[in-house]
Amino acid sequence: MKEMISEAPFFTPVYYKSTVRELFERRFKVIKIVSGSAEFSTQGKTLKVNSGEFAFVTPGSFSRIKMIPASRLPFRMICLNISDKFLTSYLRQNPSGINTSGNKVSNFEKIENDAYLEALYSSLLYYSTYNITPDDNIINMKLNECMYILKTRYKLNLFSQFTDQTLHPTSLEEFINNNYMYN
User: Fold this and answer.
1) Per-residue pLDDT reduced to its tens digit, 11-43
2) Is residue 27 a contact partner of residue 59, using CB atoms and an 8 Å limit?
3) Please, which residues have CB within 8 angstroms of residue 147's CB and are 6 or more apart in sequence?
4) How far apart are alpha carbons 14 and 74 in whole angstroms?
5) Which runs of consecutive H residues, i.e. helices, occur in 3-135?
6) Distance of alpha carbon 38 from alpha carbon 108, whole angstroms
7) DSSP structural state of residue 157
8) CA angle centred on 27, ends 74 and 105, rounded to 5°
């Protein structure tokens, strides 16, 4: 199995002791905690996600994730990273492809467990359990399946950051002014 990269479209880390990572979120993520629990923190907000629960993470902020193993099991999660490149391609192929109605999600939020999402992640668990790295075509199919599920089963505006940027491009100067502090 290839080395796992946290920004890869399919990421399945395993930790045997409590581990904390701080990172800048670059991609949209749909995460399922398989065993243990995770605490996501950013900008004074903390979200705890337990085994069997799903979380949606938006890009564009620094976050801290604490991964806590269960009493007899390691911490395991399955993460699908959804890149801007994938979203752009998805929008070209599916002009009505991203739900932009409903409440906007910022930073991270639990999303309801759903039979379709559970089925998708059960299929991904097989790859993780048997140390199999799915090829690019399978990953692309799984990302498309995930997008279809999010679009048809959830009433949240999950990709508002992406669609806002796509519909209203930001100049470099505006981006720097909005995202960086001055001395």
Assistant:
1) 999 999 999 999 888 888 999 999 999 999 988
2) yes
3) 82, 90, 94, 97, 98
4) 6
5) 84-93, 115-129
6) 12
7) B
8) 95
Angle at 14 between CA 11 and CA 2, to 5 degrees: 50
Return phi, psi of residue 52, to 5°: 90, -5
Rounded to the nearest angstrom, the gap between the alpha carbon of residue 68 and the centroid of all alpha carbons in its chain is 18
CA gyration radius for the chain? 17
Per the CB < 8 A criterion, the answer to whether 81 and 8 are in contact is yes
**29 touches 57 (CB < 8 A):** yes
The answer to whether the beta carbons of residues 62 and 23 sit under 8 Å apart is yes
156 pLDDT tier (thresholds 50, 70, 90): low
- What are residue 139's phi and psi, to 5 degrees? -60, -45
- How wide is the angle at C-alpha 150 spanned by C-alphas 51 and 130, nearest 5°? 45
**C-alpha of 69 from chain center:** 20
Contact residues for 10 (Cβ-Cβ < 8 A; gap 6+):
78, 79, 80, 81, 124, 127, 133, 134, 139, 142
| Residue 166 pLDDT | 45
Q: Are 87 and 98 in contact (CB under 8 A)?
A: yes
**pTM of the complete model:** 0.81
